[in-house]
């Protein structure tokens, strides 16, 4: 059901507010003389002689947040990779141990069979 008043999942209207309509760039400054939010192009052009300063608006916070979460993703990914590598090597160790155990038990079985074969041979010597 796509009607006119559907909700924006990612909040696109808010992003538009943070974009300079004139220069289509991110608003990240405030002009203290005009008391308006402006982009860096506005600051260099229409507000060149005014007093402006950078602001920590939602835009910069969003940018920081995105960067932060990217770093987090990277960190989690690397940690995950490390865990996988550790798990894999542990598994290899375990497998090797299991193989060794199997070989050992197999050779014990072989030894036992050999013993019983020898026993059998001994008991049948007279024939
Ligand atoms: Zn602008
Ligand atoms: Zn101004």
Descriptive labels:
127 residues; 61% helix; rod-shaped; 3 strands; 3-stranded antiparallel β-sheet; disordered N terminus; binds zinc ion; mainly alpha
Could you walk me through the main structural features you see in this protein, from its secondary elements to its overall organization?
A hairpin with a 4-residue loop joins strand 1 and strand 2 (36-39). The model is unreliable at 1-5 and 11-16 (pLDDT under 50). This protein is mainly alpha-helical and 127 residues long. The chain is rod-shaped and about 120 Å long. It has helices at residues 12-17, 40-44, 58-123; strands spanning 27-31, 36-39, 52-54. The protein contains 3 helices and 3 strands, in the order H-E-E-H-E-H. The chain has a 3-stranded antiparallel sheet with strand order 2-1-3. Residues 20, 22-23, 38-39, 41-42 line the site of one zinc ion (ZN).
Helix content: 55-70%
Count of strand segments: 3
Q: Over all CA atoms, what is the radius of gyration? A: 37 Å
Number of helices: 3
Described by strand count, sense and barrel closure, the largest sheet is:
3 strands, antiparallel
Ends apart, CA distance between termini: 94 Å
SSE pattern? HEEHEH
Structural class from helices and strands? Answer: mainly alpha
Low-pLDDT residue spans: 1-5, 11-16
| Lateral strand order in the biggest sheet | 2-1-3
Q: Which small molecules are bound?
A: zinc ion
